[in-house]
User: Which sequence fits this backbone?
């Protein structure tokens, strides 16, 4: 669906959008939980599964629920979670969009609660929710301190406005007002991060999306009563996975830092950030600060050293910069365009 065919206003209701890549084994439980919804009799709703370049039977598995859910299955051939979510936004019928991952299981009142919260707060563009980890095996001792990296746990101390208190809201369980998302699209916002592609653990697109909504003038709310289960298979609870995840965070962090570039002071700092080699040199200066930590990153298999995860994110940043090279300039320009257009959108909202 092109933006020109996207309605300027959508009927009241909830569109549940589930990006799914090779999710044939995970989807049944997620969709089964949605069949148990209650209290939504007066609420129009739908479920849209975005089959994102899957090579398994994801689409066929989803279609088996068509007689039990108001379900559509849409193919998005461009790999990447950002592309899948954007396709879901364009296809959604209703004014509230509930993003779920294919390993998220919601309670029976999810539709009704999501609709009520967004109706009670009409100036809220994004609602963050609480994720409860469901573990295939007991999590390791170090997991609790960094569970937010896996999108597990609360996203606020209590329900309330977190517009200026959060770096980002997880797309897992995120509830978005379609009008807010439309503001981003109409402003010309284009994500500089593709999200996860295949087995890649590069992420950060949720932080970028949160930044965009905030700059465009929309409030961000946390609702503690809206909770869902996030299934954690054993393979995601290993130290090796934690290291790979933090390296992915370093990759995306280079782009996210560009959104804060306007806060930098001095011509030299700005010049360094505007050239990939200069930015790589800046990133590399982190290494001498903790040389033993970096040696441990390569040679130690001991679990639980948080400094090792910090080192992995630094290495991810350096790796990303060396891979980008000439593409770094275009990323800078894309982020600069986003900032200008989003600020213009915020000005228009204030005048309206």
Assistant:
């Amino acid at each position: 669906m092109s933006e020109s065919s996207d309605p300027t206003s959508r009927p009241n209701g909830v569109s549940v959008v589930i990006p799914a890549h090779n999710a044939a084994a995970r989807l049944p439980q997620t969709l089964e939980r949605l069949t148990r919804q209650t209290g939504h009799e007066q609420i129009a709703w739908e479920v849209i599964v975005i089959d994102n370049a899957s090579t398994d039977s994801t689409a066929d598995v989803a279609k088996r629920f068509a007689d039990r859910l108001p379900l559509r299955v849409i193919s998005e051939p461009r790999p990447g979670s950002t592309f899948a979510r954007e396709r879901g936004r364009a296809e959604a019928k209703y004014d509230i969009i509930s993003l779920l991952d294919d390993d998220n299981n919601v309670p029976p009142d999810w539709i009704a609660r999501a609709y009520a919260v967004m109706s009670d707060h009409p100036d809220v563009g994004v609602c963050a929710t609480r994720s409860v980890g469901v573990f295939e095996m007991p999590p390791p001792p170090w997991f609790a301190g960094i569970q937010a990296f896996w999108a597990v746990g609360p996203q606020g101390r209590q329900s309330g406005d977190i517009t200026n208190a959060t770096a980002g809201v997880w797309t897992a369980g995120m509830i978005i007002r379609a009008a807010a998302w439309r503001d981003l699209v109409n402003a010309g916002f284009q994500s500089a991060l593709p999200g996860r592609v295949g087995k890649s653990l590069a992420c950060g697109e949720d932080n970028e999306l949160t930044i965009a909504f905030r700059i465009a003038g929309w409030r961000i709310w946390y609702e503690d009563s809206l909770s869902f289960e996030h299934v954690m298979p054993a393979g995601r609870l290993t130290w090796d996975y934690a290291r790979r995840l933090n390296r992915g965070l370093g990759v995306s962090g280079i782009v996210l830092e560009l959104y804060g570039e306007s806060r930098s002071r001095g011509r030299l700092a700005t010049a360094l950030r505007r050239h990939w080699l200069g930015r790589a040199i800046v990133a590399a200066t982190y290494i001498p600060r903790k040389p033993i930590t970096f040696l441990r990153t390569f040679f130690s298999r001991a679990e639980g050293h948080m400094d090792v995860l910090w080192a992995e994110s630094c290495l991810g940043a350096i790796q990303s910069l060396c891979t980008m090279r000439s593409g770094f300039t275009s990323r800078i320009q894309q982020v600069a365009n986003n900032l200008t257009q989003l600020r213009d959108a915020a000005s228009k909202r204030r005048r309206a």
About this structure: The domain at 3-234 is CATH 3.90.550.10 (Spore Coat Polysaccharide Biosynthesis Protein SpsA; Chain A). The first helix runs from residue 27 to 34. The two ends are 28 Å apart (CA to CA).
